[in-house]
Input
Amino acid sequence: MSKRMTSWALMILMATFFVVSALAADDASLSKDLTAVIALHGLPCGQVISVKRQGDNDYIASCQDGNRYRVYVNSEGRVVAQKQ
Output
């Protein structure tokens, strides 16, 4: 019985590790994407260091230079970056 419990515990631990790793990769990708969007709008930022999701396609991005931007998709389908 203990061998079976050990196997289950190991599988759960490994699954948790892979889920957390995947979420961290998504966060890094999202930060890079938001950095690019802000730069393409000609706004100062440097690099996005933290992201807070407000809704579908609606984020608050905090930059390394202290600026904060709301990046979202408006009703016309355009990506907008507004200084907060």
Summary: The longest helix spans residues 2-40.
